[in-house]
């Protein structure tokens, strides 16, 4: 699929940051708690195991992209199975992504009113984040990736400072027993949580924006490795500070970790500033999600430009965000989505790769 | 409306490709080739020109009619009877030097003896007028008009279908003086003036190379002088020259008063808050940009040069950064960057902290601020907005009032803002401190237009912070960064070389030592990438001999003599 003519190319470092931010949005929500609950004190191993599980999937993505000169996955599916399949898959991915982004906006709204804006209606946060997402996505991924890259230092510095300030207050024995519920159970949890990296599917849609296959590969592996490290580090620090029974009860774990910091210097409490920095990551992530859903629609319908789809899809995402009756319901559904979305997100590229390997021959190969 | 949003939307259904609109310096993008629809008076510009009437009486009649000479006594038509013919001289009295006309035109014409063996031609007359170096032959009536309105003196011999336009322009503009907005402690003290020729003189006396081109581009319909497009041939990327020339030539207006107005016609995003070009009144600064591969535009009547492509960081640079030692310049630049962040974010962050998150502040400070605000009935954001507006009133008043009473404005402002408003309980002392630091930090930025842009951004952030606290600041920050990341200056990303990330040239935030900045900035994509040779201190004992070998400094004639 030919990308919109106003789209530029993606730089390697900018794309790496963008994909990493998209993947780490969940980190600032309740996901660390879910990991603790599912794997006990060995929850820090879960992202590493999930990473190992996702690497073969990404290899399939990379091979398919390489075979078709970095065409998007939907274009490839159109080439292999016809335009109706392409249209259906585009619609399917769009629905999934809109639901995903809608729930992200809802939990982000809950996060903001819990931490920063207790007197503000959640609708204000959700609608403003949707509008901000549309604004960011409207100018294309090149601009969005540059924005992400410029905000990355703020996010990463605040993250590392908070992690290290809190990490040194912890107790190493809180990490025991080292294997949590046991080795096999931990591996099984790791595989179940492969959805931690499901946002890597973004690369299958934006592959045409890369100039070189090498950059595409480096961005994919680099962002997977980087985000796995971030998740692991967070889980370690969480368990260093909260014993296992407490860790699985914390609402927004990273925020609670931030609350443990007390500088008594020029700034007494740091957590509002941390939430500020982390929220930049979330807003970028929401914008990428909206962009991705619009792109899936565009590529599925073979439209030349994604922009007209952005606002309607953002409106749909806002509608989805208001579906859950309570924050608990939103959180539980989001966790459930994280478990099942990898099936289509990982399944489609893997199936395409298998199909291409077994059945597809281009004209040169047929000669 | 060719690429309107509606058309894009409709193109979804028709599967029409959307034409590419953006210009980029990237080698992967081809030269922009879309034709520009011609404006209203392009047609009139191409109107067929009438020839010059050969008869003296006809010519004088036409000229008198066209220039309304009865109502316009400044326009002079003089008839001169000589031994060899009737001569008509036409000029604007206000634009020409009458002494020069008398001495260098009328004198030689009276003494002139036409060749007897052949008819008189323009060349014979030009050879006689040796004191004037700018002489143009004129064959059409339009060219005659154009030469007279630009200050030339028109000469016509009765019976001939040609004339001469001679340059006897009088010097009525102000002389070169010190810069007004880009003052420096160290460095040259001359600045551009309104006369484009003097400005070119200031540049050419510094830049002694035949490659320095000052290309004439026609300006507005009623403009007296042209636009000069300046660049260095062989150094500036031809793609940049083509693009700026294309944009300048597409302007079709009555009049261009200033380069600030011109900028809005040719910049990439004219509706942006931020200027994507630099205006400078300093010849040395203009030349430094030209030497980095940028182009500059001079407009007659404007004492400023318009420079592009530039980045945001170059707007934070001061002209004197290159005159100081590198640690001092680097420190000054970092200070300015802190100033930029302070002037944009301080009021918003203060409002967010005081109103939404007082727990962030140390307890003693929080109590001190709370006690200071105790008697103030207005919200914090309102207090800051009040101070901001009061500060702007003082600034505007100081610009408008006569210089003699300028200090009075400062004193009155200081009394009102510093003392009276606190005693009246309208604002708290802390708010005054915040507003003062914000204002001062803003004026640490050398580019005046950028200060104004940041002022609007600051108000926008203050508004958001008042309603949404840090979340509002976050929205403002992301919007601002996203907008800046999307701006381009003549195809160059505005935040280059940080976004997109490339190797900085050593002259961005941190200014390294002058001898170590070997390359020109990459973003202008200059044809000659190096501005100095790699090793400029070969005599320094700290330079490794291997480097000398690589750069060939050991094989200089002197060294060879020593070796032999």
From TrEMBL, chain A:
GO terms for cellular component: membrane. The keyword Transmembrane helix applies. Keywords: Germination, Membrane, Transmembrane, Transmembrane helix, Transport. Its main location: membrane. InterPro entries: Spore_GerAB. Belongs to the amino acid-polyamine-organocation (APC) superfamily. Spore germination protein (SGP) (TC 2.A.3.9) family. This is GerAB/ArcD/ProY family transporter. The lineage of its organism: Bacteria, Bacillati, Bacillota, Clostridia, Eubacteriales.
């Amino acid at each position: 699929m030919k990308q919109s003519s106003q789209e530029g190319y993606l730089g390697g470092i900018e794309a790496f940051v963008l994909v990493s931010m998209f993947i780490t949005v969940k980190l600032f929500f309740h996901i660390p708690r879910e990991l603790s609950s599912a794997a006990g004190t060995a929850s820090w191993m879960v992202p590493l195991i999930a990473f190992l599980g996702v690497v073969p999937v990404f290899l399939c993505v990379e091979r398919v992209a390489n075979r078709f000169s970095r065409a998007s996955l939907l274009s490839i599916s159109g080439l292999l199975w016809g335009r109706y399949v392409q249209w259906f898959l585009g619609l399917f991915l769009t629905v999934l992504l809109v639901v995903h982004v809608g729930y992200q906006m809802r939990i982000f709204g809950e996060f903001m009113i819990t931490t920063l804006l207790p007197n503000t209606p959640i609708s204000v946060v959700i609608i403003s984040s949707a509008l901000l997402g549309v604004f960011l996505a409207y100018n294309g991924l090149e601009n969005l990736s540059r924005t992400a890259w410029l905000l990355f230092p703020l996010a990463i510095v605040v993250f590392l400072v908070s992690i290290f300030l809190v990490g040194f207050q912890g107790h190493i024995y809180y990490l025991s027993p080292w294997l949590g519920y046991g080795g096999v159970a931990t591996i099984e949890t790791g595989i179940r949580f492969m959805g931690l990296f499901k946002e890597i599917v973004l690369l299958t849609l934006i592959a045409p924006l890369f100039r070189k296959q090498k950059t595409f590969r480096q961005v994919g592996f680099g962002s997977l490795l980087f985000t796995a490290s971030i998740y692991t580090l967070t889980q370690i620090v969480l368990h260093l500070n909260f014993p296992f029974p407490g860790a699985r009860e914390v609402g927004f774990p990273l925020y609670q970790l931030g609350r443990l910091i007390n500088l008594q210097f020029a700034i007494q409490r740091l957590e509002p500033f941390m939430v500020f920095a982390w929220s930049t990551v979330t807003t970028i992530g929401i914008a990428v999600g909206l962009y991705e859903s619009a792109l899936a629609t565009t590529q599925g319908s073979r439209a030349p430009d994604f922009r007209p789809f952005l606002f309607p899809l953002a409106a749909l995402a806002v509608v989805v965000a208001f579906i859950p009756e309570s924050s608990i319901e939103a959180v539980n559904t989001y966790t459930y989505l994280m478990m099942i979305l990898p099936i289509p997100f990982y399944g489609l590229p893997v199936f395409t790769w298998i199909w291409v390997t077994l059945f597809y021959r281009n004209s040169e190969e047929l000669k | 409306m060719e690429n309107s949003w509606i058309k894009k939307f409709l193109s979804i259904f028709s599967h029409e490709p959307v034409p590419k609109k953006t210009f980029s310096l990237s080698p992967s993008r081809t030269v922009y080739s879309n034709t520009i629809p011609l404006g209203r008076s392009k047609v009139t510009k191409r109107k067929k020109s009438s020839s010059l009437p050969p008869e003296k009486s006809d010519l004088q009649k036409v000229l008198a009619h066209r220039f309304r000479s009865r109502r316009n006594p400044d326009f002079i038509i003089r008839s001169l009877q000589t031994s060899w013919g009737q001569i008509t001289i036409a000029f604007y009295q206000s634009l020409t030097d009458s002494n020069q006309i008398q001495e260098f035109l009328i004198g030689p014409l009276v003494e002139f003896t036409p060749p007897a063996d052949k008819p008189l031609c323009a060349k014979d007359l030009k050879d006689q007028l040796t004191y004037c170096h700018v002489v143009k032959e004129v064959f059409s009536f339009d060219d005659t008009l154009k030469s007279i309105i630009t200050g030339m003196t028109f000469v016509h011999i009765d019976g001939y279908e040609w004339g001469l336009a001679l340059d006897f322009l009088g010097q009525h503009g102000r002389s070169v003086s010190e810069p007004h907005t880009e003052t420096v402690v160290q460095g040259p003290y001359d600045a551009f003036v309104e006369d484009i020729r003097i400005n070119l003189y200031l540049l050419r006396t510094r830049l002694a190379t035949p490659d320095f081109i000052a290309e004439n581009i026609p300006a507005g319909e009623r403009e007296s002088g042209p636009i000069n497009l300046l660049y260095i041939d062989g150094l500036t990327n031809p793609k940049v020259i083509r693009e700026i020339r294309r944009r300048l030539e597409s302007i079709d207006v009555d009049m261009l008063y200033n380069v600030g107005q011109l900028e809005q016609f040719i910049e990439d995003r004219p509706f942006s808050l931020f200027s994507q070009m630099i205006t400078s009144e300093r010849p040395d600064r203009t030349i430094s940009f030209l030497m980095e591969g940028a182009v500059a535009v001079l407009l007659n009547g404007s004492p400023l040069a318009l420079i592009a492509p530039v980045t945001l960081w170059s707007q934070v640079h001061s002209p004197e950064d290159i005159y100081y030692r590198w640690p001092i310049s680097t420190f000054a630049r970092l200070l300015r960057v802190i100033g930029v962040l302070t002037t944009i974010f301080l009021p918003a962050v203060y409002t967010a902290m005081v109103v939404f998150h007082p727990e962030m502040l140390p307890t003693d400070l929080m109590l001190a601020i709370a006690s200071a605000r105790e008697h103030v009935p207005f919200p914090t954001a309102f207090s800051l907005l009040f101070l901001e507006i009061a500060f702007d009133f003082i600034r505007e008043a100081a610009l408008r009032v006569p210089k003699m009473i300028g200090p009075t404005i400062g004193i009155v402002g200081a009394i009102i803002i510093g003392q009276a408003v606190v005693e009246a309980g309208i604002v708290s002392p802390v708010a005054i401190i915040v507003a003062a630091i914000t204002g001062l930090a803003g004026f640490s930025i050398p580019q005046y237009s950028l200060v104004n842009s940041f002022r609007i951004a600051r108000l926008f952030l203050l508004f958001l912070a008042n309603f949404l606290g840090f979340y509002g600041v976050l929205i403002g920050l992301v919007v601002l960064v996203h907008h800046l990341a999307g701006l381009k200056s003549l195809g160059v990303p505005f935040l280059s070389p940080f976004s997109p990330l490339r190797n900085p040239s050593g002259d961005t935030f941190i200014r390294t030592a002058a001898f170590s900045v070997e390359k020109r900035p990459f973003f202008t994509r200059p044809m000659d990438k190096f501005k100095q040779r790699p090793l400029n201190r070969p005599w320094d004992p700290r330079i490794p001999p291997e480097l000398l070998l690589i750069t060939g400094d050991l094989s200089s004639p002197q060294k060879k003599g020593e070796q032999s």
